[in-house]
Amino acid sequence: MEDPDRFGAQMDPKTALQEIAAARGLGDIVYRVSATGPDHARLFSATAAVGDDVIGMGEGSSKKAAESVAAVEAVAALRARDA
Fold first, then answer.
1. In terms of Cα–Cα distance, which of 80, 81, 77, 73 is closest to 4?
2. Which domain does 35 fall in, by range?
3. Which domain CATH number covers 11?
4. Would you place residue 9 in the very low, low, confident or very high pLDDT band (cuts 50, 70, 90)?
């Protein structure tokens, strides 16, 4: 998931997560992002949560990439709950 934007709007993991959360009545998805490292080599970590329940985590070289990876993990976790 190095470049989640390459798939376009239909494959946007953050949108997919929002749609799943809305369909299930889970509430709003909240992303929390932190960064480590020097300015020229930042590593961003993100969590995707519903309330206090963290459902996905991800890392990336930008905030957007970290949030997208967290969203992918969250979508997988929510789908796994159905299985």
1. 73
2. 4-82
3. 3.30.160.20
4. very low
Read off the tokens for 59: 């890392």
Domain count, the chain: 1
pLDDT tens digits for range 72-82:
999 999 999 88
Which whole number is the average pLDDT over 55-60? Answer: 98
CB under 8 A, 24+ apart: contacts of 11-19: 12/68, 13/68, 13/69, 13/71, 13/72, 13/75, 14/67, 14/68, 14/71, 16/71, 16/75, 17/48, 17/56, 17/71, 17/74, 17/75, 17/78
- C-beta separation of 33 from 46 below 8 A: yes
* Helices of type H across the chain: 13-23, 63-82
